[in-house]
Specification:
By secondary structure, the protein is of the alpha/beta class. It has a single domain, classed as 3-Layer(aba) Sandwich (Rossmann fold), CATH 3.40.50. Strands 1-2-3 form a 3-stranded parallel beta sheet, sandwiched between helices. A hairpin with a 5-residue loop joins strand 4 and strand 5. Helix 3 packs across helix 5. The protein is globular and about 45 Å long. About 25% of the residues are buried.
C-alpha cells in the first residue's frame, strides 16, 4: 500500500479482510530479499486500484520511489491499472499522454467509468465496476 492509500484505509484492515500480508515500505525486511524484486516475481498480476493521476504519472516517467512503483518496474507480469480521479484530471492532456505511454509499454487499463465522482461532480473518472475489474484480471492471468 502506498502512503496515500494508507490515508484511506489501514494496512491492518486490508490484511484482515484479505488474510494476506500487506506491504507498505520499500526497505522493510530488505536483507538478502529485496521486497520489490520478490513481490514482482511472486505476483501473477499487478493491479493498481484505484490508480490516481499521480501514480499514473510516476509510472509513466519510470519513477521507483516507493514499493509500488518499484514492483511495477521490476515485474514482467501483467499490470492492470484502474484509474479513478476527477473528470478534469482524467481528461487532462498530460494524464492522457501518460496513459498512452503506459499502454505503449504494455500495461493494461480498465476504466474509468462515467458517473458520480467522490468530489460530488458527474463525469468520467469513476473506478470501474469491481466485477468488470475481476473479469479483466481473469483474462490477463
Amino acid at each position: 500500500m502506498t502512503d496515500s492509500a494508507q490515508q484511506f484505509i489501514t494496512p491492518l484492515t486490508i490484511q484482515t479482510l484479505s488474510c494476506e500480508n500487506v506491504y507498505t515500505d520499500l526497505f522493510s525486511e530488505y536483507c538478502s530479499d529485496p521486497k520489490h524484486i520478490s513481490l514482482s516475481k511472486k505476483a501473477g498480476i499487478i493491479v493498481i486500484a484505484p490508480a490516481t493521476a499521480d501514480i499514473i504519472a510516476r509510472l509513466a516517467t519510470g519513477r521507483a520511489n516507493d514499493l509500488l512503483t518499484s514492483v511495477v518496474l521490476a515485474t514482467k507480469k501483467p499490470v492492470l491499472i484502474c484509474p479513478a480521479m476527477n473528470a478534469n484530471m482524467w481528461s487532462n492532456p498530460l494524464t492522457q499522454e501518460n496513459v498512452r505511454k503506459l499502454i505503449n509499454a504494455g500495461h493494461k487499463f480498465i476504466g474509468p467509468e462515467k458517473g458520480e465522482l467522490a468530489c460530488g461532480e458527474e463525469g468520467c473518472g469513476r473506478l470501474a465496476d469491481i466485477e468488470k475489474i475481476v473479469i479483466k484480471i481473469k483474462q490477463l492471468i
